[in-house]
Hpt domain-containing protein
Amino acid sequence: MAKHYKLDRVREMADNDEDFVMALAAAFIEEVPEDAERLRKAVPEGNYYETYQAAHKMKPTVDLFELGILDKLIEVQDWGKFEKSDENIDAQLQIVLSAVENATKEIKADFGL
């Protein structure tokens, strides 16, 4: 359990209310993979605005569940925010997408979602 994410901050925020922990896990499953898919499409298309919006929206949840990729997600976000057309962000994007995919599978299994 919890190899690709951590619940320490989630439980702290939920004050150990397991129903709230479950609700946060469900929110992760509902929102983060959808935003990751937005990134998967936006970056190759050079859609800076969509990249920025999706990455920015993901940050608090990725940070809360401690996926360990916040720095890479911020790099992707900044690529979109500052329209860094001279930079290749593909490696960072792949790290983010892989971490989200692994955490999503694990959270679904751990919480029966």
